[in-house]
Amino acid sequence: MDDLGKNMTKEILNAKRLLCPLPVIRTQDKVKTMNAGDILEVICTDPGVMQDIPAWCRINGHKILETISAEMEYTIILQVA
Amino acid sequence: MNIGYGLVAQGIITYFYRILSVMSKQKKAVALISGGLDSLLAAKTVMEQGIHVEGINFFTGFCVEGHTHAIRKKDKASPKRNNALWSAEQLGIKLNIIDIIDEYKDVLINPKHGYGANMNPCLDCKVFMVHKAKQWIEENDFDFIITGEVIGQRPMSQRKDTMPVIAKESGADDLLVRPLCAKNLPLTLPEREGWIDREKLHGFSGRTRKPQLALADAFGFDDFAQPAGGCCFLTDKSYSNKLVDLWTARGRKEYDLDDVMLLKVGRHIRPKKNFKLIVAREEGEARFLQGYKKEFINMNCASHKGPLAMIDGEPSEEDLLLAAQLTARYGQGRDAEFVDVTIREKDGVERLVTVKPIKADQIPLQWMI
What is the pTM of this model? Predict the structure, then answer.
């Protein structure tokens, strides 16, 4: 995560307390404002995101870099296609 | 003269070039994807004809998808997948999920065509969604709209007399294709123009699911979702009762997303017009309600194990003691003579009260929403 390209940015999206599909919608809307190669970290509390955001990424061609599940918080790190 | 002929010839060539260009451009359709079988099949039927299809899914806030699974612990064993996303993945298409929570309020509060058996404004809802899809195809340069509607499948929005209403009032008119029952409906523009072959569309009708299941089998789909009561909480009697109660207590028809969510959670008990309790039925619901502790007075049993209860409204001190008795009723101290209950204000200030748990036969049936 530290070797981001010069023009790439990393952003964090707080989607806590939102239930699916709202975290997916917020992710979708955020990604629209980002550039290819940028990294987005989405932090959620709905465990459903562990299935839904990767599914959304797969159908839209974005790459899941990491998923973290800890203390009832779910973090998904993706790279915009 | 030669120049004139040249110009005419050039004009004719340009004209034919444009026609060829239009003919050769791959047509694009957007499919309303609910996550159910019908929309999956409708999209696939059109994709089979070489049309580029993308999905669109509208989130009203009342969708059964996801929420309840996330809230209720008992559903942990069942998959938490979003069926619209799953459908899109099966089809190999993009899915655009659109938040229409705010715009949808007017549909629910003032439905031109009224409600169905419960608070479901199905016809207005479909008109609204197809209208939004029409806007979407205009903004995204798509050619037509696909839905999974079947004549006679639903008592309000999918009848022979209401399906033309949807096409007309949405503004989609003959750009709206219903591939599963197209042969029972007038020709649409994509059929007339030869973008799709009407003979390869279907003539399903009625409530039977057999043709859909056969088509799913032919396409190789399995594991698809078939929600028994549709995919909307507004078709649910219990949920609709709670929504009407909320509006009645407030004296006006309005709601926000938190209201929509909280109506899905817990037992709702209204002893008086000025307040109601939302009592968690299990750990998953209690965990969800924890997130609202700063927005509602809340309470739970201190001397025994028991649920978290939120108090919605403007309760008096006497009301809070009644709420504490009710909260004690749903804990393990229900048969004890006294139960200590912690009452927590919105600012987190706590106090302890000791109450007699209310007996089951002391709770009038009309309190239970």
Answer: 0.86
